[in-house]
Design goal:
six-stranded mixed sheet, 11 strands, disordered N terminus, 29% strand, three-stranded antiparallel sheet, mainly beta, 240 residues, single chain
Length: 240
């Protein structure tokens, strides 16, 4: 059997177990309970339409549950977005390891994090990891027990934000809308920010196009390498 056939078989076998949810936030103070201040869905499926409003904070076919909680976060600290296959899974069940792709994180400053839908302008990327030396960003998160490390910029303004953590699985990305995008939004209040730099912002939907080279790619027959490095989708990372 050819390598491409083996890869396709592995993809089909792992589809059901490949889904994942950003379901907990870890700060320097504590690890919060599942769904605390995060709009978690009842189903762990992906989004695939990059032009849909559900690209902001997830939604149908993965209905999310509102939260009235807000988590206090210090500017400059590193938080952990904790991913699990389901809301009941443990650290050994994050996402099928055959699901390879980048991970990212975004912030959006809002007036009321419990009510803002996240749809529209205001988003800026604060973390990303793509492909390097044979390892994907998803590998890092899985190997870290589902903990995606995200530094909150120290130079931003204080106030309420939506923190959008995202993982993208590229096993089906050889066709348009074949990439599987997983995201949830945590509701945070940032304190201690220096407010010395204002980020350039983007709209969600709008940060991705279905034919972006980082979303329309065959990672099996044409894997990234030195001559064809992987291009992480979306805007560049904001730095202070």
């Amino acid at each position: 059997m050819k390598l491409s056939q083996l890869s396709a078989t592995a993809v089909l076998a792992s589809v059901a177990s490949g889904h994942t949810i950003f379901c907990q936030l870890q700060t320097s103070a504590q690890t919060y309970p599942v769904s605390h201040a995060i709009r978690t869905p009842s189903y762990d499926g992906p989004q695939s339409d990059v032009n849909g409003n559900n690209m902001a904070c997830n939604g149908p076919p993965n209905p999310t549950t509102p939260s009235d909680k807000i988590i206090e976060v210090k500017a400059g600290e590193t938080v952990g977005a904790i991913w699990r296959h389901t809301l009941q899974s443990g650290a050994n069940d994050v996402m099928d390891p055959g699901h390879k792709g980048p991970v990212m994180a975004y912030l959006k400053k809002v007036t009321d994090a419990t009510k803002d839908s996240g749809v529209g302008n205001g988003w800026f990327k604060i973390q990303e990891e793509g492909y390097s030396n044979g390892k994907w960003g998803t590998d890092t998160v899985i190997n870290n027990g589902g903990n995606q490390q995200i530094k909150i910029p120290e130079c931003i303004e204080d106030g309420q934000y939506l923190l959008r953590a995202e993982m993208i699985a590229l096993h089906g990305a050889r066709s348009v809308n074949g990439a599987q995008l997983y995201m949830e939004c945590a509701q945070i209040n940032v304190t201690g920010g220096k407010a010395t730099k204002t980020p350039t912002t983007s709209s969600i939907p709008g940060i991705y196009k279905s034919n972006d080279p980082g979303l329309l790619i065959d990672i099996y027959s044409k894997p990234p390498g030195t001559s064809n490095p992987y291009k992480i989708p979306g805007p560049s990372v904001f730095t202070c």
